[in-house]
Fold these 3 entries.
Entry 1:
Amino acid sequence: MTVTVDRHVEDPCAWLGAVAHELAGLHPADTRAVLLTVWDGLVGARLAGLHAAAVSPRWCARQRHAEAVEFDLAAQLARNCTVGTGLAIPARLPGAAVAWPGERADAAVAAIVSCCGTAEAVLRRAGELTPVWEDSLLGPVALTRRLADCWTGRHPGRPLRLPVPPPSWWR
């Protein structure tokens, strides 16, 4: 999924579905393409999660747990694939964000969990094709699983402590 620097994710649920579809069609041996596409999915997941968190206290609590995992996954992907998609991880919702109905928030969380499952499976297959598991794949496999677990309530997480200044990809 090639995007330009100015592209914004307008419908994170549709974006996550497109990313999951693209991930499923990638050859796992193309680890750079896999990692870059996982980055695109992380951007959509972050945005969808922020919208869901604005709707209900349940999603807000889970978003707080997911936030540190999102940051850790982004840091690993940025280190391992020289982020080249042009999409930054949104630190917060834009000021003009429209409130979502509860059903859309629930659908967003389901899309996050589904996309994480697809990403985990493709990253795992990519790792199995390498002679020795690469660190660039080990961390993201575990973190995509943990991110899904945060949203399903199976992983309590920890609060995010951003470095000062925050990385350029966290806006």
Entry 2:
Amino acid sequence: MIIDDSKFPVVFVDFQHSHSVDEAHGHEDGIEAFTRLFERKKPFVMISTGETPEEKHKPSREETKQVNAWRKIHKEDLKYTKATIQVEPSIVKRMGMRLFSNVYEKFWRNPLLFAETKAKAIEKAEQILREVSTGKSEAI
């Protein structure tokens, strides 16, 4: 996973890049980068513009155990992630991913939203962050 936080609090995530030559090292780097986001103690929204991790890479048993352990340690920190927005131009794929969104939300404790384009995802992220900063908690 590659995390680009140069536009924080809008954070871009590419789940596919960690699954190249050194999968274990890439996975650990992604977890470390995600942990650093929490150290800011500020809300953020993640935008994924690539394929979902499961589309090209099924996590190994060890990766799954590692993520579960990390998630338990950082359970309280997950509150800083206000939403994850998956960019997917295909309406058919978006509909299919919506079936998965409940599982995602229970596991990661933030809503999984969808946008047709990166521009629409950024717009949606900025709206969510404005609502958080003004204390408005409208349904996302």
Entry 3:
Amino acid sequence: MRSTTPRPAIRRLVGAVAAGAALATTSGCTVPIDAVAGISVTDDGHLLGAIMVCGHHIDGATLHVDTDDANNASPSARWTADHPLAPGLTTWPLDPPAPGWSATGPLTSLAPRTTYALYGWTKDNSWSSGHVTFTLADLDGLTPGKVYYNRSTGIGEETAVTVSTAEFRTAACPKN
């Protein structure tokens, strides 16, 4: 028996299903970004995490080896703030103990020629920060009062920059 459904209709249906499947597999669930992470240093050269919260809150931060395989990105360190970070700039020493933060284990020694990523998160995955990626060589010459971070170019790309803490505070969050 011959089908009464015209072939162009079947092709459109198959095309729509294929397009829907492709969209579903490429639009995975991501956490919206509403903060920017950076790295700074103390007067004695110890690393500081820096989070500029733009509008909501952040509960903690994770530093891990940067890898394309998120399942293999084991944390080097993880910090949870005693209270959610409100909009504005927060810095904390990456070497525990850090007042106002609890750390899950000590910061492991950072290795030369290894790329790390630091990012902020919320306990309920409602918000996150943009990450900063760096190697120890990237931080050579970083001085107190400066922040190294990945600045958004506004066209979906990022560039690593070092700016004053004041500029990070005023320029890190996108202007709407």
